[in-house]
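Margin note from the TA: students keep mixing up input and output lines. Inputs are the sequences; the output is the structure of the whole complex. Example:
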Amino acid sequence: MKTTDLDNAITKERRDRFLSRQSVIEMRARERARSLLDVGTFHELLGPFDRVESPWLPLQGVVPESDDGVIIARGQLAGQPSLIMAIEGAFQGGGMGEVSASKIAGALGLARRDCESGKPILPVLLLETGGVRLQEANLGEAAVAEIHAEIVALRRHVPVIGVITGMVGCFGGMSITAGLCSYLVVFPQARLELNGPEVIEQEAGIDELDASDKQTIWSLMGGEQRYETSFVDALVEDDATLLKQAVLDLAARGIPVHHRSENVEAYTRRLATIDPAAPPDGPALRRLWPRGEMP
Amino acid sequence: MQTLNFEYAAQQPVARRAHVGVVGSGDLEVLIEPSSKPTTHVRVRTSVDGYDQVWKQVLDRFFSRFQHAAQIEINDFGATPGTVTLRLEQAAEEVRSQ
């Protein structure tokens, strides 16, 4: 096959873009929070030296982390006061425990108090989580419920923005957190689903879903699919600058007239057209629920 | 999980505190802080039991070169000795740099 000058130009442009990008997926949660905020404005609350770690993990023989896998940072995003809540996907798969979830719920509560006293602050959640940590079961669930209540209270004042980058994705109770956000940004590498592929395979069998079949999994719950079927608002490549711009663009839209989670009837009508005996595949869902047709 | 404690003779305290790493698979986090005593105390919590001797050797070697007094906490999730040394070097660099 003969390569043309055009092919070379495209390849060079792509290669340069690839090399110049600042990958967010390769960053740890603290670096991610820092990369979103303006240089020199990152201020961490309840950091590692405050040692607010999980009291439950060591009792079960699991090594805890000094920040319990959640980074809460205040700073400025393009000059606006902002609150970043970033989950560390490498620690316990981003699983939420009593402490980590309470850190997020508490931070959201403080942001709401700021908004109520006339000092708006933009909340951004970096969701990289398998949901509630099994070792902390009900305590984790209760704290995640507090996160949900706080988001619903806060989103009346400011848009609450959720980001799912991958490679962990966002599952379990925390996928409900994502669903409550005013706007969602995803990377193509992201996944968003209530039950993770391994859980579905374990509970319903390999005929239902093969958890090792990455193509099928991403065609159903991947970032691009979620964007094409209007479950998220922005799809961007893995780059810190692009992510920051996407967050700012969504913030500029203001509070949505209707939040996704308020459109219960429309989503119920959508689901009613699906035959569970013959569920549609990824491409069929895109035809059924095209982008831009938010119920 | 196993908790190990080590103590080393030291001189001047480190200038400031630093935190590096993450408690992820094959990795560890290190918290280093100035110590008021002329010793360095290291507390290790590791997910892999029974490697007391390997930890002692890795830390003995590192603290034969690092003489500053510090309080160090390590939360380890199955890091290899090489990774442990690299994270300790990174923490040492953080407390040295401005």
